[in-house]
């Protein structure tokens, strides 16, 4: 069987995530974006998320029967607490965090549509989907020094290899790596003024 191409995920910068949140004026839409990014949720997990799954004291979110029919815990962003409180008091959901205006679960298609609109308003040309926010959550955790094993648990990956893809897109480690050319130049030409271009 031919192997499928392994494409690296699209990842937003922290500044881009913040910009999307800022241009999203609708309270429900902003809450959805904050939860997808702040807790690293899949779109289906957010749609199925019940009010009873929140443990604000422990800053934990219980994800029931996620992909692979596995339960797991992930984190709740403390920054989202006031937003969630405002949202709850405004919309008064009964069972699910995000509900259809007529009751019941919210539509995945609606989330994809308004997210595209928010990205357009934010001036972001990347192909952003709800899953991009999950990828960004994992990448930013890795860049901030969170152990890959913990990220695997938060995302609910059964295999560490699945989580390892984020090591290929994280900027912090890549930026810290020095080219071997720098070492050669410094060793061979120790008297060089590095404030001036050498290879011209």
What is the compact description of this entry?
With 200 residues, this protein is mainly alpha-helical. The chain has a domain of 117 residues: hpI Integrase, Chain A, CATH 1.10.443.10. It contains ten helices and three strands.
Can you tell me about this structure?
There is one protein chain. This protein is mostly helical and 200 residues long. It has a domain of 117 residues: hpI Integrase, Chain A, CATH 1.10.443.10. 47% of the residues lie in helices and 5% in strands. The chain has ten helices and three strands. A three-stranded antiparallel beta sheet has the order 1-2-3.
Topology:
Elements: H1 14-23, H2 27-38, H3 43-48, E1 54-55, E2 60-63, E3 72-75, H4 81-91, H5 108-121, H6 130-143, H7 148-155, H8 160-163, H9 171-176, H10 180-188
Helix pairs in contact: 1-2, 2-4, 2-6
CATH superfamily of the domain at 14-130: Intergrase catalytic core
**Helix/strand order, N-terminal first:** HHHEEEHHHHHHH
Strand content: 5-15%
How large, in whole angstroms, is the Cα Rg? 21 Å
- How would you sum up the global shape? globular
Any low-confidence stretches, pLDDT <50, length ≥5? none
CATH top level of the domain at 14-130 is Mainly Alpha
Strand order of the largest sheet: 1-2-3
Number of helices: 10
* Strand-pairing-aware structural class: mainly alpha
Largest sheet: 3 strands, antiparallel
Query: How is the CATH topology of the domain at 14-130 named?
Result: hpI Integrase, Chain A
CATH architecture of the domain at 14-130: Orthogonal Bundle
Share of helix among residues?
A: 40-55%
Average pLDDT score: 84
Number of strands: 3
Instruction: Please give the alpha-carbon distance between the first and last residues.
Output: 49 Å
